[in-house]
Specification:
With 276 residues, this protein is of the alpha/beta class. Helices cover 30% and strands 18% of the residues. The protein has two domains: 12-20 and 28-65 and 75-104, no CATH class; 112-276, no CATH class. It has an eight-stranded mixed sheet with strand order 1-4-5-6-7-10-11-12. Strands 2-3 form a two-stranded antiparallel sheet. The chain binds iron/sulfur cluster and zinc ion. The site of zinc ion has 6 residues, from loops.
Length: 276
Amino acid sequence: MTLQNGKYWDVSFNPLRGCTHCSPGCDNCWAEDVDKRFNGGKDFDGTGPHFYPEVLDKLEHWKKPRKVFVCDMSDAFYWGVGSAVTENHLHQWEVFCAMKAHPRHQYLLLTKRAENMAYWSERWQGWWGGTPDNWWLGGTCENQEWADKRIQHLLQRRSTGLCWASFEPLLDSVILDRRHLYCPTHDFNGGFYCGSCRDMRRLDWIVIGCESGPRRRPCKLEWVDSLIRQGKKMGIPVWVKQIEVKGKIIKGLNQISNILGYPAESLRQWPEKRQP
Ligand code: SF4
Ligand SMILES: [Zn+2]
């Protein structure tokens, strides 16, 4: 029922847990709240991310192919600070190798550390000749500043995998323009000006959603509408996860369709070639 309730993954996979805030999208971190409530705040003690190697076995146990959201109790590309970084790199490496060893699943990776994702993308290029095709590399873009910073890194990836942006929590209006195009031939951001090149790289998928939780910040319908229109204009499939109307969160597809005035089928689209 994902199409109706807005959830676009089947299962969460959390071999790494714990993180630190890095941009306004983190202010009301859901994972931190869950950790405080059910785990005494052990994972978000500031020394993470903490590694739970036994969780890696889940990929083997899930016999049917699934859409796996990697690390929704952390940021899969957060590697801590100071002397812990080297050890955390090894843990991340183990997680990526486990994913590589189970290619039947689709892996959704979403980060606020897109520069670290770009670092790993270089490594994957060296080891495997690119990012595996079934890995969806995404960045959170809560406002214009962070969309500009993160999308650049996403587009420059050395990969064949998917590249997507999650505008959740959407905290302001965001304009997508030439800065969010990339010319792989000339290694050039702002590829709009790369006149002779036809293969501009752009986002493969856009997810849009208001913030959740009791401390959620407002999300105007006009910001959502603007992103939908921009996605359609650029030919990028759009997935509207949830919207806010008069302080209430709406997830039902038919309701969202009525409120925004778009056909339901145009608001929950999968990236091309990844139809379920
Ligand atoms: S990056 Fe994600 S998990 Fe980490 S603090 Fe921010 S919202 Fe929480
Ligand atoms: Zn070019």
